[in-house]
Design a protein that fits this description.
single chain, alpha+beta, five-stranded mixed beta sheet, globular
Amino acid sequence: MSLKQRYVPQTRNSIELSSIVRHRVPLFGDAPRYGADPRLHYVYFVEGVCNEAPFGAVVLAPGHLSPRVDIYGPVRFERHEGNSVGIRAMIARPEQVETIDHPEIATPEQAAAFAEEMRARGREIYSGEKVLLDVPFRDKDKAKSLGARWSAEDRKWFVMARLVDLEDFAEWIPAPSPEHAPGM
């Protein structure tokens, strides 16, 4: 096996894009004199099917740089597959893409907030809310095998509500605190 063949990523998922909506965001500030333009220009909301399971993706696409791709759904994507979704959205023919201009976005902060809102929308539609778990160290392998993931930010295990059966994680879901209980 040659070195080139050895490092070619293999796609294990069958991915089809069914809907691409491109949100055009105004550019702010001066473009760099040399090199690619890192300012946010497009936010794509992509829907598709991977191995017969629906997924959604939000692609943040600065001019001519690799896109940042957040994929939401039950199938885990390899990194190169996620990048492929982003690039396929970016190079799709005009007739395949619905484009929405956003002239109301007047500042870089509003552009960043819009991008975060799109990411939250994708997360909610395809993954549901993030449910934090209280998993003791001795149970971490069991939780992981059921589909839990580690959040370095929260320093806890978590699951996405629409991607798993929450009954499997009932022993680790913390009881609501009294101030968050219904009827209070």
